[in-house]
Amino acid sequence: MRVGVLMGGISSEREISLRSGKEIVENLDKSKYEVVEIVLNSKEELISKVKDIDFALLALHGQFGEDGKVQAVLENLNIPYSGCDTLSSSICMDKDITKKVLKASNIRTARWLCVRNIDEIDYNAIEEFGYPVFVKPNSGGSSVATTRIDKKEGIEEAVKEALKYDREVMIEEYIKGDEITCPVLNGVMLPVLVIKPKSEFFDYTSKYEDGGADEFIIELEENLHKEVEEMALKSYRETKCSVYARVDMIIREGVPYVLELNTLPGMTKNSLFPKSAKGVDISFSKLLDLIIEHSLRER
């Protein structure tokens, strides 16, 4: 089977995508697959570069990769691809829509508001959240242009900065607690990882630089683990995810809150999903095999 690993792309997360893609290429079983490295530099290249592959293994992040648009093109070309479909990718890429689905499904999440310009900033709502708050691009990833704001005076500038990366900006209640991530593979939650960033939150540097954060499998207290698992799997189902996704949470005083879902989580050597899979003796190479197998069955 001729497997094309799609990487690069046009989003602010291009460099992370390239790193993910190259490590996927290195770890794919060459005895099973004919592996083709496909670096995308523009939207227009996609159709010509994938025409001779049997399967698209997506290592793209952010805009035109994680937002369902590449998936839609591949569906029209009848090329099976890895991970979530067009609809769930679109839902989870939009943090505002994701949180609306979570709220409608009675899944606990931090309070938030979404704005398109500085005139829409509702300072009264933010006061109800209490400071600090996080300001972030609504459809961004990898914590690009994400800022912790400790007082009212910083909100407007943070929103302006985030609007450089997206048309909408989320202002979100700060939930102080322990950050965990719950990888889900084919509807089953893998071991939970706790994240201890060296900086004030799990920012770009913490995620992608060696030593930026301590990340390790954690054994939660039995009832808490059960609640976290139920929330992770319900979030996965309600946003219509398939094959695999990562559900990020914060636990405050024993109470878990869902932050967001990642439908194309990073696949670098520092990435969370492979670390979790390793905890149940699934090697990186085996994890990629399972993603391909489950994706082919799904498509």
In short:
With 299 residues, the protein is an alpha+beta fold. It is built from 11 helices and 13 strands.
Helix fraction by DSSP (H/I, runs of at least 4): 25-40%
Question: Which CATH C-level class of the largest domain is it?
Answer: Alpha Beta
- The count of DSSP E runs of length 2 or more, i.e. the number of strands, is 13
Q: What is the CATH H-level superfamily of the largest domain?
A: ATP-grasp fold, B domain
The rough form would be described as globular
- How far is the N terminus from the C terminus? 16 Å
* Low confidence ranges: none
Write the CATH fold name of the largest domain. Answer: D-amino Acid Aminotransferase, Chain A, domain 1
* Gyration radius, rounded: 19 Å
Order of helix and strand elements from N to C terminus: EHEHEHHHEHEEHEEEEHEHEEHH
Number of helices: 11
How many domains, as an integer? 3
Structural class: alpha+beta
Strand percentage: 15-25%
Reported for the largest beta sheet, the result is: 6 strands, antiparallel
- The average pLDDT value, as a whole number, equals 93
